[in-house]
C-alpha cells in the first residue's frame, strides 16, 4: 500500500497523469478505515482536432480508495467527471489477501465504457479509451515494482500490520474473530502477470475434503509439489489450486491429475481463463471418444503392429520416456490406404496415453517430476512418397489433435538424418505446430547427430539404437511397404471410421437432399434444457429446432424417392409431415445454423413451452449464381452424382431439468472439438435461449 500511495499526487511513470487533488478524506478512530477521494487530471493522448472540437485540453476523473486494515482489503473506484453526460466510464479494483497463503496478494480489476454520444466521433473515442486502458494495465506491474524498489532503497523493507487498540482487542476477541497475525504482506514478482488485465489471482479456497483421490490432502505441501509437480512460483501454484477446485465444483466426470492440469496451464502461460477453455474442450473430447479407456479396450490392427515403425525405447538422460519413430522407413501412404485416418489417429492416441502412463512410472522411479517424453525421429529413407497429399493431411490432423489434447507432453524432439526433401515437409507441417513446441525441436542433417551437441548429449551411449550406430538392440518394427492386397476401398474405410468412433452413446445419421434427419423430443415441464452435441462428418448441413403442440406421425424410413438409395453409414428419419405448414402446425424456435463439414457443434436450448420439439439436420444447398439464370458447370456435374447430395452426422442429445442446468452445462457451453478436419477457426451462434459452439 505504501508503494501504491507514492503514485500520488502525480506519477512520472504515467505521463498522462498530470496531477491530483484530495477532495475528501476520512479516518476511523482506531485507524482501521481510511477512505480518500481524489480528483485526477489526465492529459489524454487524443488527436488535436478532437480536443479542439470537444473544447478541452484535460480530462478529470474522480478516484475513491477505501482501505480496511481490519479486513485487509483495498477497494479502488474511479469514474469520469468530464463529459459524464456523454461518456460513462467506471473502473473497480480490489486488493485482498489470498485465503490459503497470507503472503499472497489477490488482485481483481474490471472496467466498463458506455459512449452515448460524442460529436460524431464515438468510434474514435472508444478506440482511444481502449488504447489508454490497455497501456495502463500493462504498466501496472512495472509501476508497483518501481516504488517497491524505491522503498527498499530508503531502508523500508517491513511494514508492521495494523493491530487494534486494547479496548478493541477485548471486544473483537468475542465478536470479531480474525486471522492470526503473520508477517507483512509480500507481493511476489509473478503475482501480477503482464498482459492479464483481470483477476490475476482470484480469491478462492481449497477444502481438503474436496481433493482428488490418490493425491495428498494438502495441495500446498512443499514436499508434494517438489516430488510430483516441480518448481512452481506462488502465482503458478495459486492458478493450479483455483483451476482444480473449479473442475471439482463444476465438472461432472473424471477430474485429471494435478500433473495434467499443470500441462494446460503451462501451455497457456498460466492464463487461467485460456487454460480452462482448452482443458474443458479436451475433457469433452476425451469423454466423447472414450480416450480414457483406449489402452484397455482397443487392440491395434495387425497392420499397425507390423508396419508402423515406432515404439518406446528406454529413457533419455533426464529420465523422460524415449519414443523412437523411423518415419523414413514407414509407408504412410500404405497405412492410410489400408487403415484410414481414424485408425491411424487412434493408434497415435494410444501412444500418447501410454506416454502419460510412462511419465507417472518414471516419476516414481527417479524420485522427481517427469511430465513429458522425448521423441527421436529418424528420417533416413524419407522421399517424395511421404509427401502424398492424403498422408500429409492425416499427419496434419494427428498433429492438431495431439496439440489440442496433450499439451506440454513433448519435452524434446530429436530429428536425425534429415534429407533434402525434409524442408518441403517441414514447410507443410510447421504452421500447425505450437511455437513453444517448435522450440523443442533439434534437427540434424546427415551424420551430424554423431558429433558435438549431438545424440550423446541427450541419450546415454548404452541405449543408442543399433540402426543409429549404437550398441542397443531396438525392438521398433522396421516398417517397409504395406502390401497392396491389404488396401481397402474408400467406402470400406468410411464405414470403418464411423465404427471406430460410434462405439459410444453417439448415433450416426445420413442426410440427403430433400430428406433431412429429424429427432423427436417430448418436453413435459417448461424451462427444461435440450442439449445437443454433433459432428458433421461429411457435407454441409443446416441445423434447426422446431416446436409443435401435437405429436408428429410415427417416424418412417425414407426411401429417398426416385434415387432408392439406402443409408449404409446411418439412419434417416423424417417426422415433419409434408402437409404441415410452418407457422400453423409447427414453429421455428431458433434461427437456422449452417454447419460445415468437419465442424463439431455443442449447444443448448431452454424450452419455453411443453410439447414436442424436433431437432432437424437438413442438407445445405449452395446458393445459385446471382449473375445469371444459367446453371453453372459445377452445379450440373454435381447434380449427376447422387453421392454429392449425401451428408453424415454423429449426434447425441439429452434433456436436463432446469434445476440441474447450470452445473451440468458449464463445460458443454464452452466446449468444442475438431472431429473430421483441422481446427482453423472458431465461431459461435448464440440467441437469448440457446448457445451453440462450432469448431472448424
Automatic annotation (TrEMBL):
- What GO cellular component term, any one, is given? Golgi apparatus
Q: Which residues form the CRAL-TRIO domain?
A: 300-476
Record SUPFAM superfamilies: CRAL/TRIO domain, CRAL/TRIO N-terminal domain, Supernatant protein factor (SPF), C-terminal domain
Where is it localised?
Answer: Cytoplasm; Golgi apparatus
Q: What is the lineage of its organism?
A: Eukaryota, Metazoa, Chordata, Craniata, Vertebrata
**Region: Disordered, residue numbers:** 170-191
| Name under which the protein is recorded | SEC14-like protein 1
Q: Which GO terms describe its biological process?
A: innate immune response; negative regulation of RIG-I signaling pathway
**SMART domains, sorted:** CRAL_TRIO_N, SEC14
Oligomeric and partner information: Interacts with RIGI (via tandem CARD domain); the interaction is direct. Interacts (via GOLD domain) with SLC18A3; the interaction is direct. Interacts with SLC5A7 (via GOLD domain); the interaction is direct.
Per UniProt, what is one GO molecular function of this protein? Answer: RIG-I binding
> What are the alphabetically sorted keywords of the record?
Cytoplasm, Golgi apparatus, Immunity, Innate immunity, Phosphoprotein, Signal transduction inhibitor
Name the species this protein comes from: Heliornis fulica (sungrebe)
Q: Which PROSITE patterns match?
A: CRAL_TRIO, GOLD, PRELI_MSF1
What is this protein's function per UniProt?
May play a role in innate immunity by inhibiting the antiviral RIG-I signaling pathway. In this pathway, functions as a negative regulator of RIGI, the cytoplasmic sensor of viral nucleic acids. Prevents the interaction of RIGI with MAVS/IPS1, an important step in signal propagation. May also regulate the SLC18A3 and SLC5A7 cholinergic transporters.
Residues annotated as domain PRELI/MSF1: 1-156
Q: Where in this chain does the record put each GOLD domain?
A: 502-655
